[in-house]
Amino acid sequence: MGLTKRNPSFPKLALGVFSTMTLAFLILPIIVIIPLSFNSAPYFTYPMPGFSWRWYAEIFGDSSASVMWQRGILNSFIVGISSTFVATTLGTLAALGLSQSTWRYRNLVYAVLVSPLVVPAIVSGLGLFYVFAKLKLVGTFWSLILAHAALGAPFVVITVSATLKGFNQTLLRAAEVHGASPARAFYEVTLPLILPGVVSGAIFAFVWSWDEIVVTLFLATPPQHTVPIRMWSGVRESFNPTITAVATLLIAMAIILMLVVDQLNQRNARFNSASR
Amino acid sequence: MPDHAHDPLIQFRKVNKTYDGKTFVVRDLSLDIYKGEFLALLGPSGSGKSTTLGMLAGFEHPSSGSITLGGKSLQDTPTHKRKFGMVFQNYSLFPHMTVMENIIFPLRMQGMSRKDAYKLGQTALEMVDLRDPEMGKRKPDQLSGGQQQRIALARALVFEPVVILFDEPLGALDKRLREQMQLELRQIHKRLGVTMIFVTHDQSEALTMADRVAVFNEGRIQQIASPMQLYDEPETAFVASFVGENNKIRGKVIHAQADACNVELVDGSRGEGISPNRLAPDTNVLVVVRPERVVVAPADGYGNRHPARVNEVIELGDQTRLRLDVAGNDEFLVKIPRTRGAPEFQIGQSLVIGWRSQDCRVLRA
Hints:
The structure holds 2 protein chains of 2 kinds. Chain A is an all-alpha fold. Chain A is 77% helix and 0% strand. Chain A has a single domain, classed as MetI-like fold (Orthogonal Bundle). In chain A, α2 crosses α12 (242-275). The longest helix of chain A has 37 residues, at 64-100. Chain B folds into 2 domains: 10-232, Rossmann fold (3-Layer(aba) Sandwich), CATH 3.40.50.300; 247-364, CATH 2.40.50.140. In chain B, α3 (114-127) crosses α4 (145-157). Classes of the chains: A mainly alpha, B alpha+beta. Chains A and B meet through α8, α9 and α12 of A and α2 of B.
């Protein structure tokens, strides 16, 4: 009797400790950055002497360094938004086409479309550099936008394909028989129902674009340098805590966007269960 | 009621459908559908009934042959311009729209303003007996299967289409609800006079609801007739076994005159019946008779008399069912109305049974 009841909570406790440690390992490196961005002293050390907004002021001020950061942020937005737009449009169309295709090589096409996820960035970067150099596009925003679009599209293809798996094709028949042209049926029925997948994919592509550094290093000249490249050069050249403020802003943006994705997934799950 | 006096509303002419050029899903189908009728397309799965409906809706296209609506070919009319209402098996309501938005969808597609559409939508809701004033604001996933199917019906009839198509719409509902919906659909059909084409694999559903039933098997229409005609006068062995219960005994035609014929059964005994296809002597046939048309100890005037042995006796409240051994068929079923004081049957007992020749169908085996 005592044997069977001896340690009912031990496995639970072990699991708790292990999980906490794993989570801490994942999240601590991110967490430690945040307080440092409010450090009044220009060191990456604890304990901090005092609280200050000075590193944020450094980003948004009008010194030459500030202008560099602002330019980087602007570039990241230009490349991020444009490439996300291209990746989302093409990725959604590709997922729609693949979901309706009965072609025997459709899985191969799918694999090619998502391959940028597994191809090392340095290989993609080298290849793109070679192609864009021939086209005389290196050092232009076009090359960055196209490269980020191609490498961000897999996220859209994957998320939209997942949404389409639960999509009841009879809904389109119901729309068409009741007077909707195929295009109208797409806007009235398909698009609203796959929208969570489209937006999730777009957010992933956008966040990825903001994070991308390897391919961008190959293709960008200083006028196109994005935030990650500025940070990378910043770390190499001087130990300036401004970078922690930038990092904190990036973390905040990522968290907000991921919360949006989570909301969308819940919405999607509800529609899918309802349409079956 | 169907309006047979006028030209058919919809005509299928020699329609074939094949996906691979070898096997035919629908074969040489010719079918006239009249304005205002309730036509059931009945058959087992894979018999071609749903494909036929799909071709009418424009989801699929005939490999050859023509389909006309009001005398005009539908060949180049895409689905959204055919102006049919349709109810699907899995409801197929748009999950992101409210009930009311679902119902007025066809009206909006026609370009009607939301305000006008809402009025008609409200009427449609009442027609399908959903009177809860909050109903229109709900989402489909908050409703029961029966309610969802009523809304799908409201969506199909809100724009007053000439024809409403039903693709096994009651298949997902439980038995009690299904029977209730059958009666309501019948009533709506009577009230609106709309042409309804109803695909089902449930023969009792088809017989309950339809003015005419087209029985499908292996891509062909076996017979089109009123439910009672289908029951009393099946023209093929498939119809005889698919619609209601029937006894079948193997035999051969020995003499035929017009549609009356004499047959020899497998055990060498003789009988007579109606041969709707006027089969020639020596044709191998099935002799078919309904269990309730068979009598025990027949009086004179019965064209068929056979010795039988009782294999099983099942007493139900209103009837006695006997399973007999008759002319080599040991599953021969007889239904006799139960009366108090009637003699009881014993297993192993020998009987003489009989049936009239007009109740007996002789069909190609």
